[in-house]
Amino acid sequence: MSDPTRPTGPRIIAVANQKGGVGKTTTSINLAAALAEQGLKILLVDLDPQGNASTGVGVETSARNYSTYDLLLGEAPLTEVIQKTEIDGLWISPATVDLSSADMELVSAEKRSYLLHDALRQIDMDQFAFDYVLIDCPPSLNLLTVNAMVAAQSVLVPLQAEFFALEGLSQLMLTIREVRQNANRDLRIEGIVLTMYDVRNNLSQQVESDARATLGELVFRTMIPRNVRISEAPSFALPVLSYDSSSKGAEAYRHLARELLARHTPVKTKVAG
Question: pTM of this prediction?
Answer without folding.
Answer: 0.92
